[in-house]
Amino acid sequence: MDFILEWDQRIFLLLNNLGVESFDNFWLILTEKWTSIPLYILLLFLIQQKMGWLNTGIFLLFVVLFVFISDQSSNLSKDFFQRLRTCDTDLIEQGRYIAKRCGNFGFFSAHASSTFGSAILVGLAIKSLVSKINLLVDCLVGYH
């Protein structure tokens, strides 16, 4: 187990220290939940144009269900494994931390899995350049 924890810390520090301070504001803006609303409105419009109102409603129910399952499985994992977030350990002194908040435990990000999964569902629904842009944005949010 110590071997896994050591590699986890090494990989975290490697990825964390790849960041450039001049991009900090970019990442904070990109990961802000309100930043994506115009993109989501555009995607909803495109889905409605392609699928109609009824199918769009059904599609949205599936997205909500997926986000719910993703969020709850993340919470269950965090409560089960009780892995401290990096911001709650001494490890953060060796890296960079610009986030505004820090929860109790971290295992995998519900935010990242929800946005990435939603991007996949939208991409499957509309298969266009806009959905590819959505996937790219969600990958960036998930990575960060």
Please explain how this structure is put together.
This protein is mostly helical. It has one domain. It has 5 helices and no strands. The radius of gyration is 17 Å and the shape is globular. The model has no long low-confidence stretch (mean pLDDT 77).
Beta-strand content bin = under 5%
Note the overall shape.
globular
Provide the residue-averaged pLDDT. 77
Counting DSSP H or I runs of 4 or more residues, the number of helices is 5
- Tally of domains: 1
H-E order: HHHHH
**N→C terminal distance:** 26 Å
Radius of gyration: 17 Å
Class computed from helices, strands and strand pairing: mainly alpha
| Unreliable segments of 5+ consecutive residues | none
- The helix fraction, in percent, is 55-70%
Main β-sheet, in a few words? none
The count of strands amounts to: 0
Short recap of the structure:
This protein has 144 residues and is an all-alpha fold. It is 69% helix and 0% strand. The radius of gyration is 17 Å and the shape is globular.
